[in-house]
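W.,

You were right to be curious about this one. When I first looked at the sequence I had no strong expectations either way, so I just let the prediction run and decided to look at it fresh. Below is the sequence, 193 residues in total, followed by the output.
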Amino acid sequence: MVRLTRWLAAGLGFACAGAALIGCDSSGETGTTPTSTLSVNGRELAEDVPSGFDPCIDIPEEVLIEERLGSKEPDLTEAPGGVIWKGCDWVYRGGGGYSASIRVTNLTVQMVRDRNFQDATDFVVGEREAISTRQFDGPNVNEVCDINVAVRGGSVEVNVVNPPSRRDTGHLDSCQIARTLAEKIVPLIPETL
């Protein structure tokens, strides 16, 4: 929900995307032909999440066991303006650790970079462009980290929530946990994606 709230704060970008959907021209008149082009910060947004990698199915049980992640829950989130996240949420087995959401989204790494989130750090995972960001506002900003890894038509997002009160992982940085997860997931993404 944190992710959706931060993207909704960019309401102007979504309002423009909504206007594009109904086909407004420069005079303010509604055109007769709606367009299917969506945009975020002036960048074209794919109508759906990229296909070819499904985090709910394609992450092997061995990786989940190694990271002590269980209780998989499917998650589909749609924001105004056509932004979509599709994947699954997991919690740390035994309840003493972080939770992770791993989703495919139609947001590209560049779209995330354009938002100028806190602690944005560009890096490479495998041979893929990636960015880590802290998209949460407030005194506990370090508890949450998002990593977006580039794929054709969007990105794979790894979101980690790790409050310091977590018995087993609370002493760890949420972005380091997310990066470790991303490094295990990227080799599973087809090269064609």
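Here's what jumped out at me. The two ends are 27 Å apart (CA to CA). And, maybe more interesting for your project: Residues 1-37 have pLDDT under 50 and may be disordered.

Coffee later to discuss?

I.
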